């Protein structure tokens, strides 16, 4: 029903407007008595064989929603009804920011892909915290970044501000230095500044009574030498793991006219590369840290590939938009079949 009726209607309108419209509809229907339970009965699979314990947290299933969909933590409760094992909110920054000028979100229908140059548009971390205080049992990841106006030499201050603000309200953290849509941000992926940033957060973390897992989200455009550096950085700073991968700036093999747009590409064109990065990290680190696999998961088989390559958990974003919420259940069923 989603792909045959709902998606063609939604895809007839501007992608960003559809995103906010969909949010409003999902929020509205979940306010109707009994609808949340009905949605869960349609999409959720409860089975102990799906449970995973990763970096000290217990996930009810290994399929999560990637950051970027619910940036401001406005819909995590309702989205969890579709059967996600966890929801990652953000990317959040200390101060509210509008993001890049519109139009900034583009569908590539022929490629089953999306290009975005949103630019960390969000209402600020403190606003999100107020909503997270109402969380009723959803396992939440907090994806954090820096404001566009903050120079890289002061980026650590932005990340520590978000870390402190979110600490009591999320289950794990994700340090985002890999978005291509904030000028200069990817420079923080270089070895020296990245070690400084992660070690600063870890030092803060270890002062807490109950430290939280900190993960690093990396770009798919890193070379093998840079990926080896990432392994060394994870080992040095003893962070909990890596999310592989963010969107790509590569454009090889695309058919859509929108391929000329600047921004990060997600969806099917990223499937193979993100899996290659997962496999490289897993094999070259001797599986010494957990990896969350994300990028181009449009089918249960895509998810299984990433798990076989070394991912402990997977996340959806573009696949969720193109394939609909039934994809979550299909992946979990496939995991049970291959267990």
UniProtKB/TrEMBL annotation:
Known cofactor(s):
FMN
Query: Which residues does the Swiss-Prot or TrEMBL record annotate as the active site?
Result: 179
* Molecular function terms, GO-annotated: dihydroorotate dehydrogenase (quinone) activity
In which residues is FMN bound?
67-71, 91, 143, 176, 217, 245, 267, 296, 317-318
**InterPro entries linked to this entry:** Aldolase_TIM, DHO_dehydrogenase, Dihydroorotate_DH_1_2, Dihydroorotate_DH_2, Dihydroorotate_DH_cat, Dihydroorotate_DH_CS
Enzyme Commission no: 1.3.5.2
SUPFAM superfamilies from the entry?
FMN-linked oxidoreductases (SSF51395)
Keywords in alphabetical order: Cell membrane, Flavoprotein, FMN, Membrane, Oxidoreductase, Pyrimidine biosynthesis
Q: Which reaction does it catalyse?
A: (S)-dihydroorotate + a quinone = orotate + a quinol
Q: How does it assemble?
A: Monomer.
Q: What is this protein called?
A: Dihydroorotate dehydrogenase (quinone)
Can you name the source organism? Flavobacterium luminosum
Lineage at the top is: Bacteria, Pseudomonadati, Bacteroidota, Flavobacteriia, Flavobacteriales
Name of the gene encoding the protein in the UniProt record: pyrD
């Amino acid at each position: 029903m989603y792909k045959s009726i709902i998606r063609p209607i939604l895809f007839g309108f501007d992608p960003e407007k559809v995103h906010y419209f969909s949010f409003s509809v999902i929020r509205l229907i979940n306010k109707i008595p009994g609808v949340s339970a009905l949605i869960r009965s349609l999409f959720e699979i409860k089975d102990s064989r799906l449970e995973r314990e990763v970096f000290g947290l217990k996930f009810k299933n290994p399929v999560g929603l990637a950051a970027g969909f619910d940036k401001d933590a406005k819909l995590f409760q309702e989205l969890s009804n579709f059967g996600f094992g966890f929801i990652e909110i953000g990317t959040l920054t200390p101060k509210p920011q509008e993001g890049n000028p519109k139009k900034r979100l583009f569908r590539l229908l022929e490629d089953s892909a999306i290009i975005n140059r949103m630019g960390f548009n969000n209402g600020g971390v403190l606003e999100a915290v107020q909503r997270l205080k109402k969380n009723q049992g959803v396992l939440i990841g907090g994806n954090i970044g820096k404001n566009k106006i903050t120079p890289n030499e002061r980026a650590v201050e932005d990340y520590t501000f978000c870390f402190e603000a979110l600490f009591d309200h999320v289950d794990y953290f994700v340090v985002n230095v890999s978005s291509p849509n904030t000028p200069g941000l990817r420079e923080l992926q270089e070895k020296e500044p990245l070690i400084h940033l992660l070690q600063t957060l870890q030092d803060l973390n270890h002062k807490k009574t109950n430290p939280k897992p900190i993960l690093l989200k990396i770009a798919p455009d890193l070379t093998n030498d840079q990926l080896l550096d990432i392994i060394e950085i994870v080992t040095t700073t003893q962070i909990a793991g890596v999310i592989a991968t963010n969107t790509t700036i590569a454009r090889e093999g695309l058919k859509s006219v929108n391929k000329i747009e600047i921004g990060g590409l997600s969806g099917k064109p990223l499937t193979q590369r993100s899996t290659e990065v997962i496999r490289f990290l897993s094999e070259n680190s001797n599986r010494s840290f957990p990896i969350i696999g994300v990028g181009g998961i449009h089918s249960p088989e895509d998810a299984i590939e990433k798990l076989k390559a070394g991912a402990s958990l997977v996340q959806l974003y573009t696949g969720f938009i193109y394939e609909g919420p039934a994809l979550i259940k299909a992946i979990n069923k496939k995991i049970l079949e291959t267990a």
